[in-house]
Amino acid sequence: MNATAVADSTSGSTIHENGTKTEQQYANGESELRRDPDEGYLITPESDLEPTLSVVIPTLNEEQGIAECINRVKSAVETMKVPTEIVVTDSSTDRTPEIAESMGGHVVEPTEAGYGAAYLHGFEQARGDYIAIGDADTTYDFEELPKLYDLVADGDADMAMGSRLGGEIKSGAMPPLHQYIGNPLLTKFLNTFYDAGVSDAHSGFRVIDADALEQMDLQSTGMEFASEMIMQAGANDLEIAERPITYHERTGEATLDSFRDGWRHIRFMLVNAPGYLFSAPAVGFSLVGLLTIFGSLLGAEVYGVNFGMQTAFAGCVLTVIGHQVGSFALFSSYTTDPIRKPSDPITKRLRDSFRLEHGATLGLLLCGVGALYVAAALARWASTGYTQLPAPMPNLFAMTIIILGVQTVFSSFFLSMVANGTSQVN
Fold first, then answer.
1. Spatial distance between the Cα atoms of 324 and 329, rounded to a whole number of angstroms
2. Which residues pair with 36 in a beta bridge?
3. Residue 12's pLDDT is what?
4. What is the pLDDT of residue 135?
5. Helix residue spans in 277-391 (DSSP H)
6. Is-contact 13 24, C-beta < 8 A?
7. CB 304: neighbour CB atoms within 10 A?
């Protein structure tokens, strides 16, 4: 047996260990009937044939790389023998659209600026059962397209991604900041927030089933579009698979702003995961705050740190912050429609069982308890002729309880207004 290939006796095809198949796998009568005699398996805008695969390529002044990319798409198509169209969504001021059109590409102009907007417009024009995407700067080798197409066409995945971090990154192709910090960190966020289970979340070389693409309901028009696609796939329980690819040095001028675009990805992920943005920090602040308060009351000592008035003050502040952030978690669960809805038991239970009367009553009870203690402390102070000040720590806790009570009362009324408004809209 060959060390790099396995023969399939039933189909006469050869399947290589990297996951690709030889031309025999794709050669069948149906594909031959859908082959343009002039353009081969490339379906041009003038052709009456319907494509099986649509390759969508966004371009912005890519005249140095677009020809090579299209040639590599053609090479992959001839290998797969799959009727394919190339949709180029172009916002260039150079010769990119002319080059793409002369090579059989279907050039369209997006109605809105932005990386995501270009793809969304391209998806509207695509007619294939499967959609492939990739950049026009030669960083992705479109001749590796078959290994991704196979995963989706064979039903092994709804979306297949090329993994640069799991494959080979050519020297100079990716800045060290992106390779060792940015991309791994953003991938970690996506895997944590959305259970994506991928090794390279921001690879732009992908193949998606057209039906799965419809389920994603993509909206982003900027660079965060790449993250949204994975987030939506995870939220819709779509199957994502990866294959290692080679990432090459780009041709032409880079348009990526590392820090700005990285922040846009992080912001988009957090805004669409309020459970991580609000609920988790709320529990953390409240838990640390309450433990600090009890430690201060008991005069505890931890690792040489004596709990006292200063730690008591810090505990009260943390508890108030936790309560406020928790309120935001509840507000957001009514007013937003994030990709990943809050699933923590506290937020879900509070939302499902919330009643204005319950919240207002709890808030008034807290205010009452705190006010009674403050009143008793004032009475004791008065009984001494205002000569002996009350102990500051219990008074601090009492005032904190009052603050929490006031916040709870008004937050309950506001949450009730939001809930009623949301139900009327729905």
1. 9
2. 40
3. 38
4. 94
5. 280-298, 309-335, 345-353, 356-383
6. yes
7. 5
- C-alpha torsion sign, points 74, 76, 79, 83: negative
16, 18, 19, 25: CA torsion to nearest 10 = -30
List pLDDT tens digits, range 401-416.
Answer: 999 999 999 988 888 8
Amino acid 9: pLDDT: 34
Intra-chain end-to-end CA distance of the chain, in Å: 63
In angstroms, the CA 57 to CA 74 distance is: 14
Residue 234 CA from chain centroid, whole number: 9
- Tell me how far apart the alpha carbons of residues 55 and 127 are, in angstroms, rounded to a whole number: 10
- How far apart CA 30 and CA 353 sit, in angstroms, is 58
Phi, psi of 286 (to 5 degrees): -65, -45
Residue 104 makes CB contacts below 8 A (sequence gap 6+) with 39, 42, 44, 70, 74, 86
Q: Are 87 and 54 in contact (CB under 8 A)?
A: yes
Looking at every residue in the chain, the average pLDDT score rounds to 83
Distance CA 68, CA 51 (A): 21
Predicted confidence at residue 36, as pLDDT, reads 53
How far apart (Å, rounded) are the C-alpha atoms in residues 367 and 364? 5
The span from the CA of 162 to the CA of 204, in Å, is 8
**Cα torsion at 324, 330, 333, 338 (round to 10°)?**
30
Can you read off the two tokens belonging to residue 336?
């937003």
CA neighbor of 2 nearest in space, from 12, 22, 17, 18: 17
